[in-house]
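In this section we walk through a basic example: taking a raw amino acid sequence and producing a predicted 3D structure, encoded as discrete structure tokens. The instruction is simple. Fold the sequence below.
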Amino acid sequence: MANTLNLDNSMLSGGTSGTGKGGEITLNTGRLQLNNQSSISSNTTGIGNAGVVDIIADAIALSQSSINRQSLG
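The resulting token sequence is shown next.
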């Protein structure tokens, strides 16, 4: 399959530790594969919302990995 994004023991993140919105992540790929504790995340530890994680893919495969957004403020 064309256009494959493969993360292996990797992290793609957007976030903030201050006031404000966490970073937004947008991916558009044919196949997204995350392996070995890989993660895609948007977060904030201050006052504000986590950013949007928007994934457009024909197929998504996760193996011991995660996609999340979190607000701790």
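Looking at the output, two observations stand out. The CA atoms of residues 4 and 31 lie 5 Å apart. The mean pLDDT is 89. In the next section we compare this with other chains.
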